Amino acid sequence: MDEQSIRQNSEACIEFINSRFDHYKRILDSERKTSDDMIESIRRQTCLVNETDEQFRLRTELDRIELVNQLDYLEQEVDKTYEENKTCKFNFN
After folding, report:
1. What percent of the chain has pLDDT over 70?
2. pLDDT digits (tens, 9 = 90+) for 9-34
3. What residues contact residue 25 under an 8 Å CB cut-off, 6+ apart?
4. What is the pLDDT of residues 38-58, one digit of tens each?
5. Helices 10-52 and 61-92 meet at what angle, rounded to 10?
6. Which one of 11, 12, 68, 85 has the largest count of C-beta atoms within 10 Å of its C-beta?
7. Looking only at Cα atoms, what is the longest distance across the chain?
8. How far apart (Å, rounded) are the C-alpha atoms in residues 90 and 93?
9. 93: CB partners within 8 A, 6+ apart
10. Residue 81: alpha-carbon gap to chain centroid
11. DSSP summary character for residue 84
12. According to the model, what pLDDT value does residue 33 have?
């Protein structure tokens, strides 16, 4: 839709803006899923390595706890950022 037709038709303008917000929401959802999948993959790989390969076993329980804490923190940050961005989207809608 070009600028002139948007200016002439406010309903079309609202429709266009909503379509852009929907596009943005799909991007947010995709980025969140990608982040969640990556964090989960790290968790699974860490468990597998610790169970199967003595050579690469995490050195101490403290290392394992630190890794778990870091992944938990990343999950919280992903959730927080997603919610902030989603809120921003709805405030413009």
Report:
1. 73
2. 778 778 888 888 888 888 888 998 99
3. 86, 89
4. 999 988 887 776 666 665 565
5. 170
6. 85
7. 70
8. 5
9. 18, 21
10. 8
11. H
12. 93
